[in-house]
Hints:
It contains 10 helices and 8 strands. It has 285 residues and is α+β, with helices and mostly antiparallel strands. The N and C termini lie far apart (100 Å).
Amino acid sequence: MILADIFQLWNSAWPAGVTMLSLGSGFAVVLLIASVKLKVEVDPKIEQIHEALPNIDCGACGFAGCSQYAKAVSANPELLGNCAPGGPETAEIIAGILNLQISNSGPSEKPIIHCRGHKNDKTVYGQYQGIQSCTAANALANVQACKFGCLSFGDCTRACKFDALHTVDGLATVDYEKCTGCGACSRTCPRHLIEMVPFGCEKMMTVACSSKETGKSTRGMCKVGCIGCGLCVKKSEQFRVEDNLAHLDYVKYAPNEETETAINKCPTKVIIYVGKTAQPVNSIS
């Protein structure tokens, strides 16, 4: 009786099994043919370019990732050199892949923090209790007295994929030994304190302030802010004062005796050196 039931079950089930097996095999054949017919051929040059890139998808090149940039630069060689983390070395490799010759594109850009107010230098109104983010804090009017200064909640440090930015004593600080110049920090700062500038020298001079308040107001908010006195302009034509703030022309910057005099005569010591060989600037106690 049991054997008869099994035999009857087998007779009713095997056609369905055969049908499913046939359908599965048919679909497999169709997918195989489609994969061959619809296969997108990848230009070997694009693959070589992609291998030459850092593959960190930082977006410094203006594209979503390294694969997109590899395709773009292969089609448009004018984009050559847009990979800041890869630097000139990567640009030369890509140029070789594309059978191009590149000329010196000038100094690479690095970030400069236009603020030097450490924790003890800045006047604050009270303990901020909100979201620990510069973007969130910047939406409030009374986080600290200076509305131009570094908020020090680390948006830029979190944006950096190279561990080249740290908050030191209440101030965003660049580690130029690790910095690749990708520009992520500059794009993140809600107060636009971080400027990408061409480093024509290993050690660059800068005005580490962004305040456009009057000199009297700045003194009341920060011990190390620019007061727009114009003394640097009198000492060197490479400086100018605009909106109560001293500026240095980084493109034309060339260290000389005049710029050295300007940095030494600055009454608030807001003109400093930054870069790999620059001495760290401490808070004024």
